[in-house]
């Protein structure tokens, strides 16, 4: 294969992977800074608490079908959403500890939970929103972000590998015209290595 054709193929993979990685690299680079300085960034907490009681007919109908429930019934979820603005997925499973059902609804940048007494119908709901910085920091870590986001991180990481490897190939092929290529590349590899060996204990 002629070198020009091969070079063009590498360049094509390089710019395609660069285009695919652009938004993700910016997100992960910026959130890398915010995570590194999390203690210096003021937290903006917003806490919502709801204490109420589930209507007895709805409660009895639900328990008649599920003596030891781990999921809320569709009518009960709809009532919570419409009456108290509490939304949760239909597949959300809780922890049953007779007579209490505990549901955790953590998400990126927020934590929420609901504890329901299945005998009295009384429940306590609490949601803590930690703000947009915490939201994007949790996306960086993949915390409570769901399977689709985890798949995105894996695919994005693979695209970054393609971007770096094709970039290295292009550096190698153009190094004869740029004498500083390998000194700079070596320096880029040595800096994190030396920091790890000398400053991290």
Automatic annotation (TrEMBL):
<feature type="transmembrane region" description="Helical">
    <location>
        <begin position="179"/>
        <end position="200"/>
    </location>
</feature>
<keyword id="KW-0812">Transmembrane</keyword>
<keyword id="KW-0472">Membrane</keyword>
<dbReference type="Pfam" id="PF16357">
    <property type="entry name" value="PepSY_TM_like_2"/>
</dbReference>
<feature type="transmembrane region" description="Helical">
    <location>
        <begin position="151"/>
        <end position="173"/>
    </location>
</feature>
<keyword id="KW-1133">Transmembrane helix</keyword>
<feature type="transmembrane region" description="Helical">
    <location>
        <begin position="12"/>
        <end position="35"/>
    </location>
</feature>
<dbReference type="InterPro" id="IPR032307">
    <property type="entry name" value="PepSY_TM-like_2"/>
</dbReference>
<protein>
    <submittedName>
        <fullName>Membrane protein</fullName>
    </submittedName>
</protein>
